[in-house]
Amino acid sequence: MQLTRRHLIITGAVSAAALAAPAVLRAEEKLTVTISHGAPTYQALIAELSSQFALENPSMAVKFVADGDNWDPLLNSTLRASVVGALPDGTWQSLTYARILANRKIAQPVNQFIGNDIKNLQAMGLSKPMIEATTVGSNVYCLPYGTTIPIVYCNMDLLRKAGYSKPQPPSTWDEIHQIGVKVAAMRGNINGGYIEYSSTNAWIFQNLLASYGGRMMNEAQTAIAFDGGEGLQSLQTLFRFGDIGTTDMTIDQARQAFNAGVTAMHIRSASGTTSVAKATAGSFDLAVAQFPLPGPNGRLVGAGHGFFMFAKDPAKQKVVWEFMKFATSSKGQLILAKNTGYIPTNLMALDDRAFLDQYFKINPFHRSVVERLAITGDQFSFPSDSTVKIVQMMANEMRNVVTHKAKPNEALTRMVAQTRKMLG
Question: Which positions carry the signal peptide feature in this UniProt record (predicted)?
């Protein structure tokens, strides 16, 4: 009787182990990849992205690992990790680093997954300018996830007080200058307008230049290209802000001034719409306008980010690729919209009425912003270790222009000479 009972106990234990085995195996078979990021403030987005991806791909998982508190620190961490062989399987990084990551053989091209044809990425909804921003040579190294472009934030109450009568906000530089001068004439501590000329990587100058049809360097990146008429027009536009801004401020001071209701127009990234709307709610009538495009071939320069593949193992590459596709799908793009002020990059999603209804409910001020994505590429970085010094020099020259300490042609001459010198 005891033998029989023991036999039953052993048999039961074996049966229980056998029943448990498939679950254990399934857990072991779930291939997990690591993705580094420099956005610790976006924990909700990261959590939702990884959990939703796992729901749709039961055999795969993504683990996000913080490796910096912004894009630049993340890049530096990535470069250090590449030296000691400690790279993650992928990364969520600024698009402007594509060339650095490609040239250093850190990022892996995704051509094999798109049949070596960017038309297949366009078929997924990604615009050609955004794809080109992640292309080095003939290889594509990243799938753009989100971006932002400059827009004009307007305090419609101040504009009306100065005599502006149109229902929509100003749409051209001439209109912005004309009404800005009238607001500035109201005296007190009121500013007609502010443009974030000192933003990182000379981003505003890049957008002004592109809006007039110009570019920073030629396509081969062997010579600068902002030394012509488009570059001069860009600085002339900045010069006019000296007529409407009563005080030169830092970016943080200027943002606080606009939120406090003492600046009529503020030009900054569209990614700030959520925070600005929250800060100004109930204080004044907020409106946003598109960044003017005066040139017939004008375009915009985004500040995009996306996912790069580092893994060399085919199995892990497959998981990273599937995640990249998910992030740029409608579901992944809506997660971005829900948790940040960034603009989705998938044009097909933005053409879908159901997606748009949800998106604009979250970010109502983006209605006019998304119209510009088709002509939006990404910011430029000089192919030199002196990039930071160059853009800082440009910011200093732009400050001289905005504060009327230098004329546009004088500043451009210095910018051209110093850039050439630092590029060698």
Answer: 1-20
Q: What span, in angstroms and rounded, lies between the C-alpha atoms of 279 and 282?
A: 9
Q: Which of 410, 400, 407 is nearest to 248 (CA)?
A: 400
Check residue 19 and give its pLDDT.
Answer: 41
| Per-residue pLDDT tens digits for 403-416 | 999 999 999 999 99
Q: Please state, in angstroms and as integers, the Cα–Cα distance from residue 86 to each residue in 4, 34, 63, 79, 272, following that order.
A: 56, 11, 15, 10, 35
Tens of pLDDT, residues 139-163: 999 999 999 999 999 999 999 999 9
The conformational region for residue 125 under phi > 0 = left, psi -120 to 50 = alpha, else beta, is left
What's residue 6's pLDDT?
41
What is the amino acid identity at position 377? G
Q: Identity (one letter) of the amino acid at 162?
A: A
Query: Which is the CATH superfamily of the domain at 23-145+305-370?
Result: Periplasmic binding protein-like II (3.40.190.10)
In the chain, domain spans: 23-145+305-370, 150-301+382-423
CATH topology of domain 150-301+382-423: D-Maltodextrin-Binding Protein; domain 2 (3.40.190)
Residue 28 pLDDT: 53
Q: Give pLDDT < 50 ranges for the chain.
A: 1-27
